[in-house]
Amino acid sequence: MRIPSVSLSPFAAGGAALLLLVASACAAPGDAADPQDVVEADHFVPATPENLNWGWFPIDKEPVLTVQSGETVRINTITHVGATQDQEPVEYLTGLGIPRDEILQDVLDFWASRDGRQREGTSGHTITGPIYVDGAEPGDMLEVQILDMETRVPWGANNTSARGGVFSTSYPGYREGDPALDMEPMRHVIRTGMAGDREVAFVSENVQVPLAPFMGIMAVAPDPVLGQPSVTVEGVQGSRAPGAFGGNLDVKDLTAGTTVYLPVFHPGARFYVGDPHSAQGDGEVSGTAIEQSLTGTFRFVLHKDVPISMPRAENDTHYMIMGIDLDLDRAARHATWEVVQFLQAEKGLSPAEALSLASIAVDFRVSEVVDLTQVVTGFIPKGIFAR
Predict the structure, then answer these.
(1) H or E stretch covering 31
(2) Cβ pair 372, 241 in contact under 8 A
(3) What is the number of other CB atoms lying within 10 angstroms of the CB of residue 371?
(4) At CA 259, angle to CA 40 and CA 59, rounded to 5?
(5) Quick one: pLDDT at residue 38?
(6) Cys-Cys crosslink for 264: which of 19, 140, 229, 359, Cβ 3.0 to 4.6 Å?
(7) CB atoms within 10 A of CB 225
(8) What does the pLDDT average to over 291-296?
(9) Which domains are assigned to the chain?
(10) Sign of dihedral through CA atoms 132, 138, 144, 150?
(11) Following CA atoms 363, 340, 369, 130 in sequence, which dihedral angle do they give, to the nearest 10 degrees?
(12) What predicted TM-score, i.e. pTM, was given to this entire model?
């Protein structure tokens, strides 16, 4: 089917604005893609071993695709679950109760490519890319319109452990003597499918969580500096900690119909996407969401000479302004600063007016707290501005 379009009015620093079209559709979970149900795109990038990266963002890898500004790309991603453990994937996943015919060939192929594959950092993310946007240069801004998100298999997984997520001894909020939960480490396999007219996760007999698929990682090639979060090797950015380049943001609101804005650090921008999730709460407090392989469709729009300092996003109801820091208090301060700067540049407010509005109308939400750096997002409601 041809997808209806919805008008959004994306923003950019310095007052630039466009009227852009966003489309969305969703295939039934686990179904083979019906050509009439697929969002039309100019290009397709499969999740083959040569298109995948393990735990880092190479800044000089040969692009898997080159696109022009305005073009659309359909991109396959895989979850790390089944693809990165030491045990053979079919044996491992069927041992978790996942039927053999629900194991993607992409997962098997990536696992088989592990020997000799360069892996930097300690993160296990599987990341597709990079996609080269022709004409992008440092100082530009890359707009990424999220047109569609589809589940590729009818299952996902979530991990829990006594010392995982916010209960880890390495978590910034940990104090000596803090108790641990009385539990064994567990990987929860969660079935997903249709319940009436919506796609849900069947968490238990009495609990169904609506799916809201999004990519935990959307990034441009970073500008890593030794000593920065997740940079332990000169020139190499591990994928655990998000930053100005985007990365492992884990902002659950970056679903279909949302537009993300990223600063460009290298020619071509070099876009990466991965860490696919089908549902997550703000915080991702256990350390994982429902980790589930997805296909995303994106439109890339290049804005020349529009510098921004941090990732931003918007949907039809809100502007989303992010603050990122190792310290949650500092992340909140950064998010507030970015909101004030945005309201001055985009809405013509004075610093005092912008801070006042930030306090009385903007919701600052803790989007993610378990990936070393922490993310606070200021949600500015669009409805407060006179049209």
Answers:
(1) none
(2) yes
(3) 23
(4) 90
(5) 63
(6) 140
(7) 10
(8) 98
(9) 23-171+183-305 (2.60.120.580), 316-387 (3.10.28.20)
(10) positive
(11) 120
(12) 0.90
